[in-house]
UniProtKB/TrEMBL annotation:
CheW-like domain ranges (all copies): 10-151
InterPro entries reported for this sequence: CheW (IPR039315), CheW-like_dom_sf (IPR036061), CheW-lke_dom (IPR002545)
Protein name: Positive regulator of CheA protein activity (CheW)
One of the Pfam families matching this protein, by short name: CheW
Record GO biological process: chemotaxis; signal transduction
Organism, scientific name: Candidatus Ozemobacter sibiricus
Any single Gene Ontology cellular-component annotation: cytosol
Annotated SMART domains: CheW
SUPFAM superfamilies listed in its UniProt record: CheW-like
């Protein structure tokens, strides 16, 4: 009997940092990367919402991933970037400490989320963990970063 070779599927992701931890979001969801800009506060917004920015005439809500994951504030906020991502046909900015690179991963490098992550970051946001040489990259599921109610609340911030 001849075994069929398992086809390795390529996945491209945009890597970024929150502290010393490396995260990634599938490149299909990332629209652009912006340098940090002035973010206007929005009264009564959820704690993790930094505010809104005007991006070429579009008002986008900005989410601070450190606050979303209940992490301490960044040591060097001057390095911060805003990832403009799309989910559920909406655009949102995600504040991250820094962006690393576009990373090519293969399906055999990605494992399901280990139980240990439920202790630090809510594991529902994580779609898996990739092992790349000596790096561990936490893969985030953008679609699950916000609950349905939170998405509806943010929809009121955009134009």
């Amino acid at each position: 009997m001849v075994k069929k070779a398992q086809i390795k599927q390529e996945v491209q992701v945009v890597g970024f940092y929150l502290g010393n931890d490396e995260y990634a979001i599938t490149i299909a969801k990332v629209r652009e990367i912006q340098s940090m800009t002035e973010i206007r506060k929005v009264p009564k917004a959820p704690k993790f919402v930094e505010g809104v920015i005007n991006l070429r005439g579009r008002i986008l809500p900005i989410i601070d991933l450190r606050k979303r994951f209940e992490l301490p504030p960044a040591v060097d906020p001057a390095q911060a970037k805003i990832l403009i991502v799309e989910f559920n046909r909406n655009h949102v900015g995600l504040v991250v400490d820094n962006v690393s690179e576009v990373i090519r991963l293969y399906s055999d490098q990605i494992e399901k989320t280990p139980d240990i992550f439920s202790l630090s970051i809510d594991s529902r946001y994580i779609s898996g963990v990739a092992k790349l040489d000596d790096r561990l990259i936490i893969l985030l599921d953008v679609e699950k970063l916000l609950s349905f109610e939170e998405q509806n609340a943010l929809a009121g911030f955009k134009s």
